[in-house]
């Protein structure tokens, strides 16, 4: 099927570009609350599922053993900007396991935030793996290995015990069978598995509610969500959508983006989770859509609804500050 | 109508994202050689029509009066990277008209090229209007005004004599009626007019062939195309698609990108022009499609065909250099 237009980009009085995609909101039992488009199409969650991938860090006892608090747990679930505080905390997490940057297998890159990149260019020769947006997740991976005496060498590989464990966690949460057939390699070199969008949302709804989860996993899931909601800067950073969505509703919204137009979110108090995939992979569309969808779960007089609705229509200004058009969610369903 | 998928983005063995769009190739008489999708949909050409907007600079005699050669003319048609050579040449063009950066009305921005941005961050406090990707075009605008004794103040405005002249040039070339109803404001603050994609391609085919043009305009058009093909670095810069396409076929291909997934190109020796619009505005798709479409006009044994085909399938490598997927044109028609 052809997914509907979910976001329009206007210029003057005309629509200049448009984004198609799918969206689904489910409850803890997997019941679809609302949906748009093909919610059963295989979708690579990319970084949107980092909180799922962080479960071994919690369930192994490594996080407690190394004394990790909300900031460290949020960073383990993050795609961060590479700001100084992110980099320092990733290094500190590794140090707790007696490791350093040399153990990271995620590769190095400059920040994708222009403001941070300018700062980086002025303060360092080149980035290290600690600056990689995934360094917190990888530090968590390494800690999960080291705490259990597993050699972290090669921890990004499909056959490494850690990735096998994560594969099992994600199969259990999403209900999808994962293997080489639906596996790709992510930007940070770990496996990423295409799963139906509906299953991805259901996995997050299970994490938000604990429905159907063993007590250890339910507790670990809740603690990761609480950490991200308590420290949204460490999930992304300055000017980023994940951070802004969680700051708009402190302690009430969990939100995590993934590359190629994926966004996952949950409202734990309502037992709801949402997954979005923009067909063309553009984050401006997934960001607007997830904000529009989340807004419907807050009452008409709740200022959170207005804050989220404002994020669903983004004014575009040119280099002289002139308002030239908007990015606006067009297909947000009524809850 | 719903445009077809023109570009797929793969990861592993799966399609992760896809881009829809329209494409048309026409000859100098406006006859459609081939097309994909809705080629009559109003489309903002954005920066893809800069060579059209540079015609007053030529036709007024300003370019000759100020002694502009290929590099200056290419820069007048450019969306440049803000590299040092681009910035210096824009300043030199303004100086020929006795003007400086203060006359530019395009606004300032850092380079969108990561490599150039790092260099800029290390060598200057903040960018000026000379670093704006449109500064060469704007320098050309100002020169066209000053040579004729027209006050350049407010030259970006819809009602300024220069913009009225450009409006007339574009109406004549594209066959579209332009006015407030199909006008938006571009990133650099000048008016941009939505025209049917077919008309945009026809305008470039007229410029490439001279068909139906007065001798002055035919000569000016040919000189601008020749300048861009002779100095492709000044049309875009290091690592950019416009530059790479023109370098792949020296003196035989003219190519110019525009924001929001537009690409225009011409093969003057064959009297053909092409226009592409990716529905969702992503340049990775318009770049792959224009390369695929251009490749079909070169013989099976011509190395240019292979060079262009290679640009129509771009390998994506992650931070560790692992080949994770491809961006590939899927709907390239046979010429």
UniProtKB/TrEMBL annotation, chains A, B:
InterPro entries with a match to the protein in the record: Asparaginase_II (IPR010349)
Any matching Pfam family: Asparaginase_II
Matches recorded under PANTHER family: L-ASPARAGINASE, PUTATIVE (AFU_ORTHOLOGUE AFUA_3G11890)-RELATED
Protein known as: Asparaginase
């Amino acid at each position: 099927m052809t997914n509907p237009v979910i976001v329009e980009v206007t210029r003057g009085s005309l629509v200049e570009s448009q984004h198609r995609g799918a969206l689904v909101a489910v409850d803890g039992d997997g019941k679809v609350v609302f949906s748009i488009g093909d919610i059963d199409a295989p979708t690579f969650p990319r970084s949107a599922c980092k909180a799922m991938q962080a479960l071994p860090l919690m369930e192994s006892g490594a996080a407690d053993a190394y004394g990790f608090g909300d900031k460290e747990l949020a960073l383990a679930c993050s795609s961060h900007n590479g700001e100084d505080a992110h980099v320092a905390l990733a290094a500190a997490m590794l140090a707790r396991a007696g490791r350093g940057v040399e153990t990271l297998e995620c590769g190095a890159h400059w920040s994708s935030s222009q403001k941070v990149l300018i700062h980086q260019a002025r303060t360092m020769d080149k980035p290290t793996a600690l600056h990689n947006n995934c360094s917190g997740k990888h530090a968590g991976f390494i800690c999960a290995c080291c705490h259990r005496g597993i050699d972290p060498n090669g921890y990004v590989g499909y056959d490494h015990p850690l990735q096998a464990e994560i594969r099992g966690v994600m199969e259990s949460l999403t209900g999808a069978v994962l293997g080489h057939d639906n596996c790709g390699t992510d930007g940070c070199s770990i496996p990423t598995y295409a799963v139906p969008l509906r299953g991805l949302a259901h996995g997050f709804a299970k994490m938000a509610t604990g429905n159907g989860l063993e007590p250890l996993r339910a507790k670990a899931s809740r603690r990761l969500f609480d950490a991200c909601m308590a420290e949204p800067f460490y999930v992304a950073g300055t000017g980023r959508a994940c951070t802004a969505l969680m700051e708009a509703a402190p302690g009430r919204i969990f939100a995590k983006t993934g590359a190629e137009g994926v966004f996952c979110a949950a409202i734990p108090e309502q037992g709801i989770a949402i997954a979005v995939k923009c067909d063309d992979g553009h984050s401006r569309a997934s960001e607007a859509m997830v904000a529009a969808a989340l807004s419907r779960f807050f009452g008409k007089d709740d200022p959170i609804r207005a804050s989220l609705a404002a994020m669903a229509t983004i004014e575009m200004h040119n280099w002289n500050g002139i308002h030239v058009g908007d990015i606006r969610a067009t297909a947000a369903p009524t809850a």
